[in-house]
Structure formats: structure tokens, C-alpha cells
Amino acid sequence: MAFELPPLPYPRKALEPHLSGRTLDFHHGKHHKAYVDALNALVEGTPESAMSLEEIIVATHHDDTKAALFNNAAQAWNHAFFWRCMKVEGGGEPAGAVKKAIDRDLGGYKEFAAAFKDAATTQFGSGWAWLVLDAGKLRVLKTANAINPVAGGQAALLTCDVWEHAYYLDYQNRRPDFVAAFLEHLVNWEFVAENLEMATERSAAAS
Ligand code: ZN
Predict the structure, then answer these.
(1) Staple 140 to which of 16, 35, 115, 174, CB 3.0 to 4.6 Å?
(2) Predicted TM-score of the model (pTM)
């Protein structure tokens, strides 16, 4: 079965004025679709066609001969995850278990936001900023190009796409403004809470 482009979890103009419908048309309809199409062409007739995206990412990330497969599988995964990290009238400070974990491991929301902005704006060139659960602790990190926490054995909780294609139509070169809008108006903390709960259960089951 071929990999499919998952639909956006909201109407394409729903995140305006922070992200335009035009940006989502290109980013989801062209860029994300191109990764899924390229992945399907690469796996056709190979054992990887029966694997999940996560399995392909883990199996190929140290294999230079499979860089194209890794890059397209990881970008397909990253984008599907990124769309779910945003919602209408999201952003601001989290509550509940996520707030507790941020207070415990990162020193509070302000410190988290500063670290996330720093990761997102200092990622040189294309890449991603992440909040992950790593060995039972929250961490903020950045990755280059298609690399993601799945490849590193960490659980992704939140991501922001900092490839230029994510913000250029709306923010041109002002990546910090895009990241600020993402944190203040777009983050879907309920999705982060679901990811944290799943990751915590998995790490408890494994230990
Ligand atoms: Zn992107």
C-alpha cells in the first residue's frame, strides 16, 4: 500500500493571519506532497514498501546509500507531525502535565520559550526545532534538514518547521517573527499532552 498525504487537520485558511492559506497550499499541497510522492517512487517494489514511516526512518538514518529514502520518509513524517502541532487559537502557556514537565525539566514556560526560539532561529539553513522526551526528561533541540527525533530514539512532543518554505510567503526572511507567532498563537498543547502521555507510558513499559 502506498503512503498517503494526510489531510490538514483544519481548513487551509484556519490559521490566518499567522499562517496564510497560500502558505498552507504550497507547504502541504506541494512540498509535503512531493516528499510523499518521492517516497512512494523510492519504495515501489522494495521491502520498505511494507514498512511504516518510523521503521524506514530508523532503518535508513545511518545508511548513506539510502539517504534519499531517509530524507523523504523523514520529511513525510515530520510534516504530518508538524500540522498536528498547530491549531486555531493555540499557543501561549500549557497547563496540566505538560506545564508540570516543563517546570520540572526546563525551569518554566519562559525558559522553554526562550530555548525553543533559540533552537528555531539558530538552526543554520533548513531544519526543525523540537521539544522531545529523552530518557524521561524534556529537552529542546534542533535538527538539520530531514533529521528528526525518531532517528535519534527520542519521543517527539512538538516541532516547528524552520525550512524557508514554512514561512517565506508570510514572513520573508523574518524567521524569528514566524517562530514567535507559532509559540504565541499556534501551538496545539493538547496534541503535545497526548504525545507526552504516550511517550511516558512507553518509557515506563520499557524500563
Ligand atoms: Zn516544511
Answers:
(1) 115
(2) 0.97
Distance between CA atoms of residues 18 and 167, nearest Å = 10
What domain range includes position 80?
21-84
Number of structural domains the chain divides into: 2
Give 166-185 pLDDT, tens digit per residue. 999 999 999 999 999 999 99
What is the CA(185)–ligand 1 centre distance, in A?
19
Distance 31 CA to ligand 1 centre (A): 7
- CATH classification of the domain holding 142: 3.55.40.20
The alpha carbon of 104 and the centre of ligand 1 are apart by a number of angstroms equal to: 31
205 CA from centroid of ligand 1 (Å) = 33
Write out pLDDT tens, residues 73-90: 999 999 999 999 999 999
Strands 137-144 and 155-161: unpaired
Answer yes or no: is 38 within a domain: yes
* Cα-to-centroid distance, 27 and ligand 1 (Å): 6
Q: Which of 194, 189, 188, 193 is nearest to 15 (CA)?
A: 188
User: Ligand 1 centre from 108 Cα, in Å?
Assistant: 28
